[in-house]
Structures
1.
Amino acid sequence: MTSFTSQTFIDRLIQENFKFFTGVPCSLLSGLISYLEEVEDARYIPSVREDSAVGLCAGAYLSGSLPVLLMQNSGLGYCLNAFTSLNLIYRIPVLVIMSWRGQGGKDAPEHIIMGDISQKLLETAGMDYAVLKPENCDQVLETALQKINGEKLPYTLIIEKGLFDERH
Amino acid sequence: MKGTEAFQELLPLLNDEPVVHANGYICRESFNIKDREANFYMIGSMGLASSIGLGVALCKPNRKVIVLDGDGNVLMAMGTLAMIAAQAPKNLVHVVIDNEVYESTGSQRSLSNQVPLEQIAKSSGYREAVRVDKKEEIKPVFEKLMNSTGPSFMLIKVEPCFDPKTGRVTHTPEEITHRFMKSLQPTGNER
């Protein structure tokens, strides 16, 4: 099996034509963002809030680009109004890469509740997702691309601690 | 000047530029005065017209992109002013119709009578930020900003005058997406 790293994963997304990246950092995504800052075929634009990143991605999609939003699950609350009153009703897709803080109740106090409910929130909003693993990457990306290019709807990849390298 | 008068001055100055509209009064007034395929009517997601416009401007660097925003929207997403200033898209003109109230929900006051939004834009790093108080200033100021390097910010101070009978946008959100995307496709005469 080929190795699964921040670099191979981003390169794979670029191959699939995702070249517009934005988001708000999380330590679990720091390896991905570091690589995005140095890779030539993609751009990473720092956003100040997760909902601004949703707007930025919507503008990119409307202009013919395929956007990716990186954020911690703590940002999901900020995004829900944008997802429900923009992306879902306008059929504006985005690939969301969302880190999973508070998984299993073992994290800093501020992450525990959102760690427990973030997948339920996505389900309640009718938004599909998958927990990304090295072994399911191909299959999950195929599902995500079908959702984004076929149904024109957002798709979320949930990132557990330890999947990617951390830079700090 | 009344809000409607600002739209009546501004809208005839548009050609084929994409215009991202803030929700509420801004969408409805513009739609009823002059509907265009290149209008993106953001009917929900308050605060995000500016970030949507930034995304369009960054991905379509050869098109002038206009955000038609409101004071309530700008106040909700002031961080986006920093993002626009930092990315500094030369092709973005951010026009704000400032009536100092949330007019479509019953004219509750916003904060823009106390907080000068054009100064915030200028301090954030917009290349130009102009406040306009008179109807006669709209045309020359807008034309100047359309012909200069952005990002630029144009604050138009207006009196509330929204007629609640003004119709809502009748296109479905999916139709708005479809026609806006079509209007952005290369035509061979991009400028």
2.
Amino acid sequence: MVDLAGILISSIAALATGLALQGFGLGGLSSEPQKTPYLGGSDPKVHAWQRYHVRYYSMTLLFIAFEMEMMFMYPWAVVFLEEGVKAMVEMGMFLAILSIGILYGWREGIFRWQ
Amino acid sequence: MSAAVPIIVLFYVLGVGAWLAAALDRAALKLMAGRPLAAATMAEPWRQGDLHLVRQRIWTERPDAMNWLLAPALYLILAAVGMSVVPFAPGFVVADLDAGIVLWGACEALTVVVVFLHGWSANAPLPLIGAYRYVAIGLSAMLLSMFVLIAAALPAESLAVSAIVESQASVWNVVRQPPGLLLFLMLGLSLTLRGPFDYADASDLAGGTSAEDSGPARAAWQAARLAMLVSVSAMTSAVFLGGYHGPWLPGPVWMLVKMAGVLAALVGATHMLARLPPARMLTLLWTVLLPLAFLVLALVGAEVLLWK
Amino acid sequence: MAVSGLARLATSAPAAIYPVVGKDGLAAVEDLSLHPAVSLQPTPRHASVLLVSGEIRRGDHPALRRLHDQLPHPRATLWWRTTPAPGFPQAENVEGDVARAVELVWRQLMTGERRSEDNLLPDEPPAAWRGKGDHGQGGEGMMGGKPYGRPMAMTDEDQRDGLALDAYTACFGPFLSVLPPGLLLELTLQGDVVQSAKVLRAPFAQAVADEPLRRVARLLRPLGLAGAAERFQRTAAAQTGDLKILDRALRWSGALHAIPPGLGEIAGEDIRASLRRWWEQAQGIASPASLGDGRLVDLLPGLEWSEAILVANSFEYDRLLRLCPPDREDDGDQEDCS
């Protein structure tokens, strides 16, 4: 309980600091020409927000596989010594299977900017 | 009341550490650039920070104002919360969680979100490109770091940072798994948008996600980045460099000395190493560094089983 | 009162300058950047002084006004070795020592002795949007109209993976800090990959800016090596220095390996080879100059943003001018950009 309260208090203090720092500043409100996004002097034709072409979308699928695997690794790390070689072999198999995914993805070029 | 002391110390270390990191950064830049180093370098972060504070803040056309305002504050929160699980002396810690490194991992993941929001919120092209491409590298670097953290947790049989520090009483993790330390330092650079892992606030995007930041917005974002750098150095010292363990000096002093060393290493790497184009870095992360992390995990696992 | 104390402290920080570089102005600005009392900024948002150095084209004046207004207050404009553009009532012409002039203006700005410059453009949104649409936001339906005065990007073909998402077309330059000064490019991006490129205005000729050390420095900057780049510039400006330290900085940084092989290749020489050639020339090792010609706009499509920026910064200026013939047939687009 004390731990969680400590984290909560730290968070509030950090939030307050982050917002207070931004309370400074002179010069008043931004005028319309000031608001134009920076393009080296040119005027943008359209809004920057768009259906952005994310080039690494196939990598994110592989990432999710590994991130789920991470969930299993947390408890595994705690019982590793108790379980011994069995735990080692099991996780080795798991990682080996996922690593085949990396190799396959690499062959398919998912780490390049498609 | 005694529970408040670690919190006060935490913010004190964050603040002083951020100033030290900024001064080291200026010094490293000057050293690389061949400019004379002067004692005044130590005061430069103050001048620079004040300069930002007295200037006007510009809001772009139709920004996501709430996220733009919140991003630096959230970044600062993640730095503070991440560091709150790190002990500075036996039992002297804000939150001695059983799953400390899981909380740290959560802070890593949310950092990617916060940096993205910062780039997104200006509704401007250069910050937006920085935001999107950072996600690719930020996620991959984070994945790596979790493997090396798990490897560090194996000998401790616990996910608590204090237990990991205790497990290093005889031999530090940096001896057990030197590549782990290197991989974790890379994550530190990625979390703080620095040097070869700076894909968000990069020079090829004229400042990337901070290209539209002016005045106090810039001060807050830079301060948050520095605070995260301090947080990373605390975590690195605790997990790989034995935390407060060390001969002759008192524990907390050791901790601070190690943190300063990690800060200097990170800042040096920033100015010495070239940044790869993101696709090249992504390939490197997944095909070379991730297998290296697996190898570290396997070696540490074997070593722990044979040792006991 | 706390704020005025902050302002006093800020006066002692180096002057934050956004440089606008014109014809033959680059080397002078690079040399100015070595002065400890100034710091060049990559975007006008971080700067307080707009420094125009070298002659710029009449067609660039609207871009200059737009940049001027993008600086946060307090701000000032200085002309240096250039003909002042009309319509800058509060700007000042620098005669003599530019570093001193910049320092003076900076101190006056920070202490409030000098009044911050007003906007040059009218304080109006780019297009009338208020009151239109369901919520008065200017848009209609999902993507129609002009929400908040600007249209949204629309989908188009993609040349890499064929996924037709939004194509973002914009003019970059003529004074974008990561591009050679004067270069105005119309780029169509999908995500961060260039789909098509058009040169609307060529970069400015730079008479004395092509020493090999300066060329290396300009390529190190986009790679994130500001410190090393400055050391190369310093050596170029002083025309003397320890080349061994430079060699070490270049090699240890991994800059050569960071650049993808084959990037920006013309007549068998890619950027890596150019970087190596410049470095050899700087060391006095005779190395044949590349003579191959092509067009910058043919090199850029298909490149990711950081690769495209490397390519744009990887040519000597006389060669770059030959690579950048403006696309004359598209006068209509030029109107859009300026």
